[in-house]
């Protein structure tokens, strides 16, 4: 459902970055757009119900905490739906897609640490009686899910890892930030009440995370498919390790590329350089991939383009989920 109304486009597009860190953020957005606070909340609620809005919250930078890995399986086609359902049922899996390849099921596993992620992958292997390829990220070049709804992926910004992992004392707030804000007048007040903190402390902490790079961004997270970007492909390249960084940095700056990173190889999987490309149709995605290969100097390397054929699960990462305060754990604070 492509958003048609200019106000809806502004609400989804403008606030993917720099979402207001103030006690009444939706009133601040309304003031910027000449809308009432209630109208802003109603529009966001409708967009969320329609699937265009995933959440409003944190996108943490690599190294901020927790662990994750891309994983993949070669599933016999007759078993794909069954195995995909088993994989999606795990809370630690936040993305799960079928793709056009012999290795046809691709998902992201997350957890509080590497040991928990490995235990999840072993459980999936045992349940499916199939091996799982482990493809951990070695170097990010572009990790930025901000998406210009007028022109597609936004201009590349350099991706940097967090300077340091979050302090364990901050993990409960991080868990709430991953979940996203409630659509009410004082959503940060809800978080403060659940954490037993003052609102200004919550806001100051979020601002510090943004300034220090622990947060890649804080704001609106959209669903591409529901907004008309129905085609997406993962392009993978087999490049020499010594050239991967230079090629990866070049790839990250290509128009249409939303993600670019280097990952570990796996048995039977020689590719190490990855990028994601989204578009309104298959032809436009292929055009972006071909242009990126040419401009980034990748034409001479073996590659594959894996289009997504089915989305089984898509949620935000939940690296800190186990540290979320219970909803009923409220403290009497003056907010």
Automatic annotation (TrEMBL):
InterPro entries recorded: AsnC_trans_reg2, HTH-Siroheme_Decarb, NirdL-like_HTH
Domain Siroheme decarboxylase AsnC-like ligand binding: 67-135, 227-313
Reactions catalysed according to its record: siroheme + 2 H(+) = 12,18-didecarboxysiroheme + 2 CO2
Keywords: Lyase
Pfam name, any one: AsnC_trans_reg2
Gene3D superfamilies: 3.30.70.3460
EC numbers on record: 4.1.1.111
One MF annotation (Gene Ontology) recorded for this entry: lyase activity
Pathway noted in the entry: Porphyrin-containing compound metabolism
Record bears the keyword Nucleotide-binding: no
Domain of life: Bacteria
Ranges where the Siroheme decarboxylase NirL-like HTH domain occurs: 8-52
Family the entry assigns: Belongs to the Ahb/Nir family.
Name under which the protein is recorded: siroheme decarboxylase
């Amino acid at each position: 459902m492509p958003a048609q109304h200019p106000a809806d486009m502004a609400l989804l597009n403008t606030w993917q970055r720099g979402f207001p860190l103030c006690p009444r953020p939706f009133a601040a957005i309304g003031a910027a757009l000449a809308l009432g606070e209630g109208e802003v909340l109603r529009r966001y609620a409708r967009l969320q119900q329609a699937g265009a809005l995933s959440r409003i919250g944190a996108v943490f930078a690599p190294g901020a905490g927790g662990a994750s890995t891309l994983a993949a399986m070669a599933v016999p086609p007759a078993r794909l739906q069954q195995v995909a359902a088993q994989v999606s049922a795990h809370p630690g899996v936040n993305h799960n897609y079928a793709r056009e390849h012999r290795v046809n099921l691709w998902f992201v596993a997350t957890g509080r640490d590497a040991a928990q992620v490995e235990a999840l992958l072993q459980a999936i292997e045992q349940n499916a009686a199939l091996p799982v390829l482990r493809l951990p990220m070695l170097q990010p070049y572009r990790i930025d899910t901000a998406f210009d709804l007028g022109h597609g992926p936004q201009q590349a910004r350099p991706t940097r890892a967090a300077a340091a992992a979050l302090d364990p004392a901050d993990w409960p707030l991080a868990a709430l930030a991953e979940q996203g804000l409630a659509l009410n007048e004082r959503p940060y007040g809800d978080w403060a009440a659940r954490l037993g903190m003052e609102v200004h402390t919550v806001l100051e902490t979020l601002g510090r995370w943004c300034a220090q790079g622990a947060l890649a961004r804080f704001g609106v997270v959209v669903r591409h498919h529901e907004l008309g970007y129905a085609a997406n492909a993962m392009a993978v390249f087999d490049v020499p390790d010594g050239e991967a960084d230079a090629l990866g940095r070049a790839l990250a700056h290509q128009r249409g590329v939303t993600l670019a990173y280097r990952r570990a190889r796996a048995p039977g999987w020689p590719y190490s350089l990855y990028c994601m490309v989204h578009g309104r149709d298959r032809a436009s995605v292929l055009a972006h991939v071909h242009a990126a290969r040419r401009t980034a100097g990748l034409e001479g390397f073996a590659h594959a383009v894996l289009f997504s054929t089915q989305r089984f699960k898509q949620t935000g990462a939940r690296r800190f989920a186990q540290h979320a305060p219970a909803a009923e754990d409220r403290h009497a604070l003056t907010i």
